[in-house]
Structures are given as structure tokens and as C-alpha cells.
Specification:
- The protein is of the alpha/beta class.
- It has 10 helices and 15 strands.
- The chain has helices spanning about 35-50, 55-70, 85-95, 115-125, 145-150, 175-185, 275-290, 295-315, 340-350, 375-380; strands at about 20, 80, 100-105, 125-130, 135, 140, 155-165, 190, 210-215, 225-230, 320, 330-335, 355, 355-360, 360-365.
- The strands form 4 sheets. The chain has a 7-stranded mixed beta sheet, with helices on both faces. A 4-stranded antiparallel beta sheet has the order 11-12-15-14, with helices on one face.
- α4 (about 115-125) links the parallel β3 and β4.
- It starts with 20 loop residues before the first strand and ends with a helix.
- The chain binds pyridoxal-5'-phosphate.
- Pyridoxal-5'-phosphate binds next to α3.
Length: about 375
Amino acid sequence: MRDIESLIGNRDEFPILREWNFFNHAGVTAIAKCGADALRAYAAQAESAAYVGAGWYAQLDELRAMTAKLINAHEDEIALVKNTSEGIATVARGVKWNAGDRIVTASVEYPANVYPWMDVARRENVELVMVAEESDTQGRRFVPIDKILQAAEHPRTRMIALSHVEFASGQRLDVARIGKFCRERGVLFCLDAIQTLGIIPVDVVAMDVDYLSADGHKWLLGPEGAGVFYIRRELLESTHPPEIGWNNVVHAQDFGSYNFTFRADAQRYESGTPNVPGFLALHASMQMLMDIGVENISRRIKKLTDQLADGVEAKGYQLISPREGEMWSGSVVFVSPTHDHAAVVAKLRKEHKTEVALREGRIRCSPHIYNTEAQIARFIDVLPGH
Ligand SMILES: Cc1ncc(COP(=O)(O)O)c(C=O)c1O
């Protein structure tokens, strides 16, 4: 175990703290020192001795095992992928669709979880149903789960595809409820978990998830372009690997044998040489997060985002993110009744070394465990008031 307190405001472990109030972990994270060290070690090894004696692939095996532990899966259900999109596209292209099948999603999903389904709809004569985001009386925006399930009651529904947290509202969805619905009806459930993995517990068994995909470049504190993909064991045979290279097969290192037999495990979805430095860095940061414990991380993120949500409301901003019950997440999204949002975001960066994101015309602030309460207080302080 690792003590979370020792990381808060720790400039050695999180060098970004030296110059920035960085609050865009829902966008692209700054990497922690442990991840940067892994990249430096990779470069030193690769430069001086190439791969000889490096042990990189053993660490990639460890990363698959760690990922399995993180989401309560089995090691043989994990593939390393280049990003969230690759995992989702593997499902979209790997499932054998029938004309007239239905896929249900929300109308506010990140495009990584929209275009692959639009492509299926176009090519396979499948119907894509996109349930609209709604607003409650307080102005919070949310995807209504009841309507998702209503839409999925249709007997031709094959799949529900959703994000655990919506990128432009910060709403966390009740995935256990959706998963249970799916499992009871034999509907497939594909989850984009990039906005929760590392900071909010994810349990693919308890949540009845069939497929899960996430890159490491947000809450997992990893570099861009190194992600993980989970497929439930029982679906391996019915989900055809859409990208075939030398490495999907049983004796991949026996190059000349041409034994074209897919591996029995999820590595059948890994087609060629992996992004070794990226995965080594992800290995380091995931290890750190797991040593702290996701439950502990989750409590800290809740505390910081509560401070943020209260603070922006007190400054006269309209909170977009639903925060009740289990709907809160690492993202606090808000809008101003009067200010130009792009100008606010640009000014924060330029004059206050404070980084937040603009998404769908809304301001999104997403701190991580190492950010301090004082940084958040300062952020609230410099936000233009009303
Ligand atoms: C919900 C969601 N899915 C996926 C992505 C990124 O996809 P990829 O890892 O393929 O770049 C983002 C990034 O902004 C996101 O917010």
C-alpha cells in the first residue's frame, strides 16, 4: 500500500505542480514522475543495448495482469491496445451483425464511441439508436438511464454501448443497472471506461460488462496511445479479430510456420509490435495508483470535486454535472450565464497557469489526487465572478 497523503502537492512525484494548476485529467494528463522514469529507462536501455536483457515483455504481461486485477477480470481477458478507439472498433468490427440488429447509445457520447457504431449501421444495415441528454430542474444534464433501457427493450437490440462517465457533462452512469438489464436479455454491453479507470472502482463481473476499452492518458496518468481492452472470455470465439498481423496467433514467434490459429486468449486482438515505451510508462503509473487503492483515490477525487462544484456555484456559474448519489465523477462541468467560455479558459492558461478544458461549449475542470485544496481554492478565486 502507498499513502495517498504523501502524494498530495508532491512536486517530486508530480513535477507538473511546479508550474501549473493542471485540472484537465479528463482530457490528457500530465504524466507522473514514475511514468517519465519508465520512459527514460526505456530510452537508456534502447539506446545502449536495444532490447537485449531488457525484460520489457515480462512487464507487458504484468500490465495485463494488473489491468485484470483493476477491473476484476482474468488475465486472459485483457489485450493491450493503442487507444480506446481500437478496443471499441474491435467490438464493432468483430461482432457478427445481422441486418435489423439494434445498437443503443446516447447522443452525447465521445465520438470514439459513436463513429464505430455509425459505421456498423451503414455497412451492416443495423439500426443505431441515440438517446438524448436531458436537463433537470436545476440545469444539470444527464443521459436518462430509464430511456436507454426503454430503447433497448426492443427485441432486436444486440448491444448497448456507453461511457462510464460522459465526457461533456461528467455524469457517471449506473453501469451495474445497465449491465444487469443486458445480461438478463442476452444483450451485449460495451463500456468506454476511459473516464473512470484508475479513480473509480470498475468491476466487470459485478457490472456485467462484456467489453471494456480505455486508454491510459487520462486518469491512469499514462502517456498517450497505450490502452487496455477487456473481453469476457465467453465472447472470444464469437468476436473475430478485425485486424490480423503476425502476432494474433498461437505460435507467433515461429515465424515461418504460418500456423494461422488464433490465440485462445484476448491477445488474439493484438496484431503486431506493441507500443512498448507507452505500456512501460502505463505499467508504472497504474502500479502507483493500485498501490494507493482505487477506493482511497475515489474518496479524494470526491472531496476535491465537491470543493470545486460548491465553489463554482458560489461564483454564480451554472453547474452542468449531476453530483447526486453515484452520478459524480472526476469532472466538474459548468457554464457562465454571461462570460465567454473560450476567453475564460484562455485567460486562466495565460495569466494564471491554470489548465481546464472547453468541451461542447462548457468549462470542464478535472483534478487528480495530487492536486491540493489550496490549488482549487485559488482556481475558484481567479475565476471571473458574476
Ligand atoms: C469518453 C471518451 N472516450 C474516448 C476518448 C479518447 O479515445 P482514444 O483513447 O481512442 O483517443 C475520450 C477522450 O477524450 C473520451 O472522453
